[in-house]
């Protein structure tokens, strides 16, 4: 927990310093990034842990390289995120819990998620950018996947690769399921 807390503190300080160095107000960063002013403020004060998407938007708005924001001179060769420390997207009323496994700097290029479905859980997605593809591997349970008009049923160990630049969905109509999802933006 200690190392994760240090990274969190460095990230908050680095984002605040970058905004101030560019002479930008919280409102200006909010407009440029699409992240609410209150969320930007909470992140800068270390009161909120940003999602990968939020970090991506903030670093793009501030024209920063995320990896450099939290660089540590004595950083180990193995970057370790403990299971309880991985960012989590929970709920949304769809019966799916999403753990973000990829580093924040890969957002928008190559993202890795663990998906945990309650029985009947459904993750519906609007089209991503042109050429985007998803790779879904079922770890336990069974899942259905739909991409555009095409669909398939997957059992444990099965992998589906499909276009994600059209409406697509992953569901667990048969019960609880877990999967690994890789999103590769084109």
CATH superfamily of the largest domain: Jelly Rolls
SSE arrangement, N to C: HHHHHEEEEEEEEEE
Helical content class: 25-40%
What count of structural domains?
Answer: 2
* Unreliable residue runs: none
CATH top level class name of the largest domain: Mainly Beta
Strand content: 25-35%
Give the total of beta strands.
10
Examine the coordinates and then state which fold CATH places here, giving the name of the CATH topology of the largest domain. Answer: Jelly Rolls
Structural class: alpha+beta
User: Any guess at the CATH architecture of the largest domain?
Assistant: Sandwich
Number of helices: 5
Shape: elongated
Tell me the span between the first and last alpha carbons.
35 Å
Mean pLDDT, as a whole number? 85
Strand order of the largest sheet: 1-2-3-10-5-8
Radius of gyration: 18 Å
Task: Provide a descriptive summary of the structure in words.
This protein has helices at 2-21, 26-33, 37-44, 52-61, 66-69; strands at residues 88-89, 96-100, 110-117, 122-125, 133-140, 143-147, 150-154, 159-163, 168-171, 177-184. It has two domains: 2-69, 434 Repressor (Amino-terminal Domain), CATH 1.10.260; 86-184, Jelly Rolls, CATH 2.60.120. With 186 residues, it is α+β, with helices and mostly antiparallel strands. A hairpin with a 2-residue loop joins strand 6 and strand 7.
Describe, in short, the structure shown.
The chain has 186 residues and is of the alpha+beta class. It has helices at 2-21, 26-33, 37-44, 52-61, 66-69; strands at 88-89, 96-100, 110-117, 122-125, 133-140, 143-147, 150-154, 159-163, 168-171, 177-184. It has 2 domains: 2-69, 434 Repressor (Amino-terminal Domain); 86-184, Jelly Rolls, CATH 2.60.120.
